[in-house]
Amino acid sequence: MTNDNAIEVVGIQKQFGTQVAVDDVSFTVGKGEVFGLLGPNGAGKTTTLRMITTLLRQDQGHILVNGFDTVTQAPRVRQQFALTGQNASIDQDLSAMENLVIFGRLHGLTRADARSRATELLGDFDLTNSASKSLDQFSGGMRRRLDLAVSLIGNPSILFLDEPTTGLDPRTRTQMWTAIRRLVQHGTTVY
Ligand SMILES: Nc1ncnc2c1ncn2[C@@H]1O[C@H](COP(=O)(O)OP(=O)(O)OP(=O)(O)O)[C@@H](O)[C@H]1O
Ligand SMILES: [Mg+2]
Questions:
Q1: Has this prediction a pTM greater than 0.70?
Q2: What whole-number distance in Å separates Cα of residue 185 and Cα of residue 114?
Q3: Whose CA is nearest to atom 7 of ligand 1?
Q4: Ligand nearest to the CA of 22
Q5: Which ligand is nearest to the CA of 51?
Q6: Distance, CA 18 to ligand 1 centroid (Å)?
Q7: Contact of 113 with 60, CB cutoff 8 Å
Q8: What separation in Å is there between the alpha carbon of 74 and the centre of ligand 2?
Q9: Which residue puts its alpha carbon closest to atom 28 of ligand 1?
Q10: Which ligand has the minimum distance to the alpha carbon of residue 50?
Q11: H/E element holding 100?
Q12: Cα 22 to middle of ligand 1, angstroms
């Protein structure tokens, strides 16, 4: 193990009944890298991500996240990353700004710090003009961008995205990738 790796996956295997979902997978992701896992439907991408994020335990092998073991040090591992893909967490009755401030407060920021970080993220994700709109007026792409902004309010060192641009139009896709590239310049590892 070296300190330059954000993620080390070593020989992991996962079986559901008789079906092998992940078969002896190993890879490493360096700090500050953008790493993509590609494969056809059912290849085991989401299952692999669930093991790395401690939501599922592998049958064999081990995984280190910023040097912490996903099985024996799961709570420490969970402090290292944010995960997006499910936008269940954002509240439809609140504005974009209010959602960001609430999540900032949940991450322990003061009210003033939460507001200033929220303002910064709204700018990064091209949502400044929609800051006070309630989410029921948001398009699907705007919601996804807000979801990504919310997941970043605690400045995670690693960000996991499961199919972040699926279902988005080409212009919104480009905006997402521009936002993701900007994160990398700020030192986040994206998987
Ligand atoms: N909880 C589960 N119980 C049983 N089988 C599962 C479970 N989760 C995943 N599988 C099976 O494991 C295999 C890998 O699924 P997984 O969701 O990891 O694929 P994926 O690469 O993310 O696919 P997609 O591109 O469709 O999202 C599939 O055959 C799937 O049916
Ligand atoms: Mg999947």
A1: yes
A2: 21
A3: 16
A4: 1
A5: 1
A6: 13
A7: no
A8: 22
A9: 42
A10: 1
A11: helix 96-106
A12: 9
Q: Across the chain, how many H-helices and E-strands are there? A: 6, 7
Ligand 1 pocket at CB < 6 A: 16, 19, 21, 39, 41-47
Dist. CA 165–CA 59, nearest whole Å = 31
pLDDT tens per residue, the chain (191 residues)?
557 899 999 999 999 999 999 999 999 999 989 999 999 999 999 999 999 999 999 999 999 999 999 999 999 999 899 888 655 577 888 999 999 999 999 889 999 999 999 999 999 888 999 999 988 898 888 888 888 889 888 888 899 988 877 877 887 788 778 878 877 877 778 88
CA distance 14 to 100: 36
> Rounded to the nearest whole angstrom, what is the distance from the C-alpha of residue 163 to the centroid of ligand 1?
14
3-class state of residue 108 by DSSP = coil
**Closest among 188, 181, 1, 186 to 80, alpha carbons compared:** 188
Residue type, 95: S
